[in-house]
Amino acid sequence: MIRTYSKFLALLVAMGVMAGCSSTATQDEGYGSDVSAVDQQGGSEVYGGEGSDGVTSGTMTDEERAAQAERASQQEQAAMRKITTFYFDFDTSEIKPEARDVLIAHAQYLANNPSASVRLEGHGDERGTKEYNLALGERRAMAVERFLVVNGASRDQIETVSYGEEKPAAMGSSESAYAQNRRVELIYQ
């Protein structure tokens, strides 16, 4: 009985020693990337590489955040204004929904730059009479003009011209060529 009792006691001592020697990982060991976890104040830190102090969003002031958001918005608006050709469906002068945000960016640019001016060139495909295509190109240019004016541009900044079917963007009698020719182009002057 004493022998069994001493084995049990030796087993308990061995388990105690093993439990005392074990260790757990600390939180400072990192995650294997150059981005740290969110700190206690809600900011995060991104490092630019060795020897760099990195950028911390937690230390930015409200004014700096607002200025950064404004710069990002201006860059997005500038990128949208690079789109200057707007396409129309067959026999309509209705502006497509996907063109509206880009046209709003153009309207805001014109509103913020009163000395800027733009010429709207309306076009049609080769189907229909010459007179009909001239009128359709004019209706398309006028639709874009109204949209720009409603969204902040001045009517004095805009000139409209219709070329009808006279200046096709694509040659041929395919639906693809027709689709490329049914358009309004914005030409800044």
TrEMBL record:
Primary role: Part of the Tol-Pal system, which plays a role in outer membrane invagination during cell division and is important for maintaining outer membrane integrity.
Keywords: Cell cycle, Cell division, Cell outer membrane, Lipoprotein, Membrane, Palmitate, Signal
Gene label: pal
Location in the cell: Cell outer membrane
Biological source species: Marinobacter nanhaiticus D15-8W
HAMAP family according to UniProt: Pal
Classification via Pfam families: OmpA
Region listing for Disordered, in residue ranges: 26-62
GO terms, biological process: cell division
Any one of the GO CC terms: cell outer membrane
Membrane keyword on record: yes
Entries under CDD domains matching the protein: OmpA_C-like
Lineage: Bacteria, Pseudomonadati, Pseudomonadota, Gammaproteobacteria, Pseudomonadales
PANTHER family in alphabetical order: LIPOPROTEIN YIAD-RELATED, STATOR ELEMENT OF FLAGELLAR MOTOR COMPLEX
Subunit structure, as described in the record: The Tol-Pal system is composed of five core proteins: the inner membrane proteins TolA, TolQ and TolR, the periplasmic protein TolB and the outer membrane protein Pal. They form a network linking the inner and outer membranes and the peptidoglycan layer.
Signal peptide coordinates: 1-19
Family of this protein: Belongs to the Pal lipoprotein family.
InterPro entries assigned: Bact_OuterMem_StrucFunc, OMP_bac, OmpA-like, OmpA-like_sf, Pal, Pal_lipo_C
Bilayer topology annotation: Lipid-anchor
Cell division found in the keyword field: yes
Source superkingdom: Bacteria
Name of the protein: Peptidoglycan-associated lipoprotein
